[in-house]
Design a protein that fits this description.
By secondary structure, this protein is α/β, with parallel strands linked by helices. It contains 10 helices and 5 strands.
Length: 216
């Protein structure tokens, strides 16, 4: 039997915390690996390799969800981060994704969407509304060509991966197009990150657009 996906929760609202914890515990393939009421507590407690996915409240007091996500991303290996928010604030969600989060989920959608969202980001995918994805990539496209000297040597397949990601496809969707597994696409993205000197898929797409490596 496959080991369950280990999920940690960072949420300072007790009612939401109970809802998320119950939703996770009701799934046979998910396991609650810890619940914290602040980013500071989670950063102090979470150890590399002990958690697969962290669900992070965007509107935390103290260290907010964006900074918490960024700091958790410094672990080696880093857990996937899924942002939980009451309101779909484009700017805040964008900041969280640039800090390494794999997507976001509205709190009102937790009972129905949290389990599949956790599975998606664990598999290397993203959870982003198409409306936001289009806005993000349009902003990056406007900056394309301003840093042509930033080009790096990417293979044809790596460029294909970046193109699909830039168009809003998840790793799973890109794997179907490329004839690869989601895990293989995720590993390709990690190699791209190393080559480009970036930490997130958003930064990789931004750099590729600016350097003229890909076009939308």
């Amino acid at each position: 039997m496959t080991d369950p996906i280990r999920v940690a929760l960072i949420e300072d609202d007790a009612r939401t915390s109970r809802l998320v914890a119950r939703t996770i515990e009701e799934q046979a393939d998910l396991a609650l690996a810890g619940a914290f009421d602040s980013g500071e507590a989670a950063i102090a407690a979470v150890r590399p390799g002990e958690v697969d996915v962290v669900v992070v409240d965007l509107e935390l007091g103290g260290i907010d969800g964006v900074e918490t996500s960024r700091r958790l991303g410094e672990l080696d290996p880093p857990p996937e981060r899924l942002i939980l928010t009451a309101f779909a604030s484009d700017d805040k969600v964008f900041g969280a994704i640039r800090a390494g989060a794999a997507g976001y989920l509205l709190k009102r959608d937790v009972p129905e969407r949290l389990p599949p969202a956790v599975r998606e980001v664990f598999a290397g995918g993203t959870v982003i509304e198409p409306r936001l994805a289009r806005r993000f990539w349009n902003l990056f496209d406007a900056a394309r060509g301003s840093c042509a000297n930033d080009a790096v040597a990417l293979t044809a397949e790596e460029l294909d991966v970046l193109m699909l990601v830039a168009r809003g496809l998840t790793n799973r969707e890109a794997s179907g197009v490329l004839g690869r597994t989601p895990r293989q696409v995720k590993l390709q993205l990690e190699r791209i990150f190393v080559k480009m000197g970036v930490r997130t898929r958003v930064d990789a797409v931004t750099a590729a657009l600016r350097a003229g490596l890909i076009r939308l």
